[in-house]
Specification:
heterodimer, A: 253 residues, mainly alpha, Ferritin, 10 helices, 0% strand, B: 328 residues, two-stranded antiparallel ribbon, 11 helices, 2 strands, 1% strand, globular
């Protein structure tokens, strides 16, 4: 299949994004600002981990290794996640804003993929989109609460987080070398189309939240992740994630 | 997860004579008939006080208990374990939430309880003051500490206070999954490579004493709890719970070819009771009073989370809204 490389590249981006954000969001367990948020971030993390597993499983059917090996033995340069998901959890404002901007893109991506010509992905998209809808609902409710209905401090924190996270979020849409191929074969409409939908979706919510989208001179500053160039945060995270697995990668754990 | 129920307030109990004798007699008759006491029913002050203490300590144990295992979520080997551990620790936090709500029905707010936890006034289960050093420790905790907790919680779910019993029923169902997860994890390690086997054996050696401490000091030295037994606040003695635990799990440990670091541990065929070397109860006391390997770290993490999250909680407040205790 001539589209294999393009398809795999798309699946790796998505799977790696979901794995890394799942890992990051799970770090809130036990540490949230209120217990209900510990629980919510954990639920979302579990969903994301499940989505990454489903995507790695599709990759396995395309000839890649089984999911544990793919997720737990690759090094940094083999990952295709965007920089946004790699950052440590920071404060709750940072994690919440990341959750909002990432999940909106994730939901819209799967929405586009429901009509993908690659049927297994279309099926998966139809299945997971319902879950991600709740992630977006959760994030948007909190962003609005803390942005427009909270305190002066919460508004200031949310705005400064948006200033920090928004430019990173543009890295989600780093174009791939396969854009034309993916669009022509009907697998995926492409990163530019997705970004356009994303802007249209986040703008009214941010406006309602009294938050202003910062100007970004060069979106490409957050690019690189899709080609294996990552922030300094990814490798330490992977080292931690694979610490036990690497004791014996051939053992059953 | 919870244990050390025996750490009951050592202050002298409030004498029941101070209560209205007619109301007290009705209350005790209801308990004798097996009825549940509900939040708005009359209850002796001492009953309320002991229940708040107990449920609150249980709630604290859940959220502090999330910490030693929580640190392994990011290191769990493989999708299956990572997913399961995330869900398990999330359950523990959820139990905390349920239990704080149950305690709130008795008139103490979640905030007040958390403040007492952070100030050290209120205790939590001693086992969580020990570190989970390796992946093997998380397996042993999930299996045996959760098993110990189930013994305790199943007993308490038959107690007299409705909201606590209902919370415990749900908690026990979830804990029984944790136990399966923990057992599966221990079996995998015990039947795995040499390294894995050593990892789980060493963890078991480390955790045996805290496990033996789990249900509290022997009945012979425990504080007087007759009234709490009568009121169905305390449903089983420490020794009864420890025996039930040993009976259920020591054979399973041995079956896996693992050893218990106590050469005297055996079941006496005549009495049907397990005999063992008494764990160091002085250490138990020391740790409960704040001098364990992780007491400071656990509370420091909780304090940090409280401090860091304060702005979020403040931003949720509405001056027009008053505190409402949750419905049971």
């Amino acid at each position: 299949m001539s589209n294999d490389a393009a398809l795999k590249d798309l699946l790796f981006r998505m799977a790696d994004d979901d794995l890394i954000i799942a890992h990051r969001n799970s770090e809130w367990t036990g540490l949230g600002p209120i217990m209900e948020e510990d629980i919510a971030f954990s639920s979302i993390a579990q969903d994301k981990l499940g989505h990454s597993l489903a995507l790695y499983t599709l990759l396995e059917t395309l000839g890649e290794a089984e999911p544990d090996t793919t997720a737990f033995t690759r090094d940094e340069a083999q990952f295709r996640c965007c920089h946004l998901v790699e950052y440590p959890i920071g404060g709750y404002d940072f994690s919440l804003m990341r959750h909002f901007l990432f999940d909106m893109a994730d939901m819209l991506r799967f929405e586009l993929l429901e009509s993908s010509s690659y049927e297994p992905l279309a099926k998966l998209a139809a299945k997971v989109r319902g879950e991600i809808k709740y992630h977006v609902f959760h994030a948007a409710t909190w962003v609005e609460q803390l942005g427009a209905k909270g305190s002066e401090e919460s508004h200031a924190r949310m705005q400064s987080s948006l200033n920090l996270v928004y430019p990173l979020a543009l890295g989600i849409f780093e174009p791939s070398q396969f854009e034309a191929e993916l669009a022509a074969s009907g697998i995926f409409a492409g990163e530019a189309a997705l970004q356009e939908k994303w802007i249209a979706a986040i703008s009214p919510i941010l406006e309602r939240s009294n938050l202003r989208i910062p100007a970004v001179a060069d979106p490409a500053q957050a690019y690189g992740g899709r080609r294996g160039y990552h922030t300094e945060h990814l490798q330490p995270m992977l080292t931690e994630m694979t610490e036990v697995f690497r004791i014996d990668p051939t053992a059953s754990w | 997860m919870y244990g050390n129920l025996s750490v009951i307030d050592a202050q002298p109990n409030m004498p029941s004579e101070e209560e209205d004798p007619k109301l007290l007699a009705e209350f005790e008759a209801r308990i004798d008939r097996g009825e549940k006491i509900e939040p708005h029913d009359w209850m002796p002050r001492e009953y309320r006080r002991q229940l708040i203490r107990m449920i609150e300590q249980h709630a604290h144990s859940e959220i502090i208990g999330a910490l030693p295992e929580g640190t392994w979520i990011t290191r769990a080997p493989g999708f299956k374990r990572k997913m399961a551990l995330m869900a398990k620790v999330q359950d523990e936090v959820g139990h905390g939430q349920l239990l704080y709500s149950a305690a709130e029905t008795l008139g103490k707010s979640r905030e007040a309880m958390i403040n007492d936890l952070l100030s050290g006034k209120s205790k939590y289960s001693n086992v969580f003051n020990y570190p989970a050093l390796t992946w093997g420790d998380t397996a042993v905790i999930a299996w045996l500490i959760d098993a110990g907790a189930i013994v305790n919680q199943v007993a308490n779910s038959k107690g007299s206070y409705g909201p606590y019993c209902r919370a415990l029923e749900r908690i026990c169902q979830e804990e029984s999954f944790h136990l399966k997860y923990g057992y599966d994890n221990v079996v995998t390690l015990a039947t795995g490579t040499e390294t894995q086997r050593a990892m789980v054996q060493e963890a078991l050696n480390r955790w045996w004493q805290p496990i033996m401490h789990f249900h509290g000091p022997p009945d012979t030295v425990s504080v007087h709890t007759e009234k709490l037994v009568r009121w169905k606040v305390k449903m089983a003695t420490n020794d009864e719970m420890r025996q039930e635990f040993l009976d259920g799990y020591v054979p399973k440990i041995w079956e896996l070819g693992l050893t218990v670091p106590d050469p005297n541990l055996h079941k006496n065929p005549e009495t049907g009771l397990w005999e063992f070397t008494e764990p160091d109860w002085e250490e138990f006391k020391r740790v409960i009073n704040g001098d364990g390997p992780c007491n400071k770290e656990r509370l420091a993490v909780r304090r940090m989370a409280e401090e860091e999250g304060r702005w979020v909680r403040e931003a949720l407040k509405r001056p027009s809204q008053k505190y409402v205790a949750p419905l049971a």
